[in-house]
Amino acid sequence: MEVLVWIGAAVSLIGVAGLVWCIVLAMRARSSGLPDDDIRAALQKVVVLNMGALGVSALGLMLVVMGILLA
């Protein structure tokens, strides 16, 4: 089950990369100088991406735990 641990670690890293990308997108939106309504709309899209990245990261951590428990 060592393979499951490595796959889970890779999936978790993809999720963390997605979270970092969400931070970059949010900072770009806030510093863009757009009106408040446009910034709010952009940040709402970032929230959706953030939840997806968090879910992917959690799924990867679950795979790691399952790999450890089954070993």
Please provide a written account of the structure:
With 71 residues, the chain is mostly helical. The protein has one domain (2-70). Helix content is 90%, strand content 0%. It contains two helices and no strands. The chain has helices spanning 2-30, 36-70. The mean pLDDT is 95.
- What would you report as the Rg, rounded to the nearest angstrom? 16 Å
Order of helices and strands: HH
State the major sheet: none
Which segments are poorly predicted (pLDDT under 50) over 5 or more consecutive residues? none
Distance between the termini: 6 Å
Strand content of the residues, in percent?
under 5%
Number of domains: 1
Inertia-based shape:
rod-shaped
Number of strands: 0
Structural class: mainly alpha
SSE blueprint and pairings:
Blueprint: H1 2-30, H2 36-70
Helix pairs in contact: 1-2
State the main characteristics.
rod-shaped, mainly alpha, 71 residues
In short:
The protein starts with a helix and ends with a helix. It is built from two helices and no strands.
